[in-house]
Amino acid sequence: MASTYDLIVVGGGIVGCGIVERLRGELSRVCLVEQGPRLGSGASSAAIGGINPHLGDDCMGPLGLMAQHSRELFPAWIDRIASVSERAIPLLPTGLLQVAADEKELDRLANEVMPVLAGRGLGAELLDARQARAKEPLLGPGVAGGLFQPADLAVEPPLIMDALSRILTGPGGPELLLDTTVTAVETGAADVTVVLADGRTLTADRVVIAAGHLSRHLLGLPEDVLFPIKGQALEFAPRPGRALSVQCDSLVVDDAGEHVVFAVPRPDGRIAAGVTFEVGVDDTVPTEEARRTNLHHLSLIFGDLASAPVTRVWAGIRPGTRDAVPVLGHVDADRRILAATGHYGMGITLAPVTIDLAAKLLLGLPVTDDDQRDLDITRPDRFDQGGPSWARPTI
Ligand SMILES: Cc1cc2nc3c(=O)[nH]c(=O)nc-3n(C[C@H](O)[C@H](O)[C@H](O)COP(=O)(O)OP(=O)(O)OC[C@H]3O[C@@H](n4cnc5c(N)ncnc54)[C@H](O)[C@@H]3O)c2cc1C
Fold it and tell me: CB of 320 closer than 6 A to ligand 1?
């Protein structure tokens, strides 16, 4: 019997929706299954929106090259979905200032990060304290300097999800099953069966699993390979004359460990900031403690920013992986099930390259040498024999 669908995609986040949007017109019978009441119910609408290909230790290796590839694809991808959806999605060319809270961190940026960026032909600039404050006047008096990466971008992720949702719920969109949970994905001789929580089954020639941190259950991965990392963030109201000029990231170290301080401007003067990394936590309830610690760490870098009115707090769950690299590739010998998950704190940054690679694999298009390099590092079977060890969380 013929399958019901050419393709079923499980998960309506930036990865699942992006793949379905890319395949519009290429496959006729497509179904997108999302357990939430709307597309963008998961991490993708909770992201802050830095497009930062070379931020954090993980990006100093081949993941940074994959992310750079994605950064290059970003403007054209945003232009296209903004134009098809008739929604504005401002993409701000803010650059990224990695702020050194002390001399030791400035030293690390100068001697460990700068050479890698130079080796990649990127025009990064090392700044002393005075230059860093000139670049970002909201910085407090205590910062030691920084490293400015001019090519980084900033975007408001909920706007991307609104645009994708508008496209996918419009003419030519997939069959959309909202409020519908997939409990199992099983390969058979000729097709794949997708089992739903209400007992129904669907069949498809191929299935993409893009269910964020919950993909683990459908892929049968151990909990130390793919796991939740809760992130809590907040938004400050616009203040006349006190807008953030560049997006800033800093590591603050205290007795409790390392804390990421991240702040990204919005076009109307709002500032999205945070952010916590709570490994193994899978609820999306914002807590008073996280609000307090986020404000405290922000005040160490920005001085008076933390006293601005907070208009919103929220939490989302990143799909963390043991080596901080996504899981992208076929998981079965017949190449019917494609995993597209595990993007950690970089799923917005990595969305265009992930969508492009998934489309090539699903449509059987040729892959370039760069594509193959990216697919080699994201192979789902790399964890089979114990695999790479735990990496420090980064955003
Ligand atoms: C606070 C915070 C800040 C962040 N900031 C940034 C940033 O600045 N830059 C950046 O690049 N990244 C950032 N990220 C990371 C980014 O948000 C994620 O990597 C990305 O959104 C993952 O996308 P996804 O589509 O894989 O997952 P999701 O958006 O979580 O989508 C998965 C979807 O699958 C659905 N689903 C799950 N299980 C099932 C099932 N069994 N059946 C049906 N549906 C199911 C879920 O409901 C969900 O809608 C941030 C994340 C957080 C939490």
Answer: no
**Distance from Cα 257 to the centre of ligand 1, integer Å:** 25
Helix 157-168 to helix 62-85 angle, to the nearest 10 degrees? 50
- Residues 38-49 pLDDT 10s: 999 999 999 999
At 216-257, the pLDDT tens digits run 999 999 999 999 999 999 999 999 999 999 999 999 998 888
Give the nearest ligand 1 atom to 11 CA: 34
Amino acid symbol at 227: F
Concatenating the DSSP letter of every residue in 1-12 gives: ---SEEEEEE--
Q: How far is the CA of 317 from the centre of ligand 1 (A)?
A: 7
Neighbouring residues of 224: CB distance < 8 A, sequence distance ≥ 6: 322
Per-residue pLDDT for 385 more than 70? no
Structure tokens at 9: 């995609």
Instruction: Give which of 120, 153, 168 is closest to 48, Cα–Cα.
Output: 153
- Domains contained in the chain, CATH given: 1-94+151-224+323-395 (3.50.50.60), 95-150+227-321 (3.30.9.10)
The DSSP secondary-structure symbol of 13 reads: S
18 Cα nearest atom in ligand 1? 25
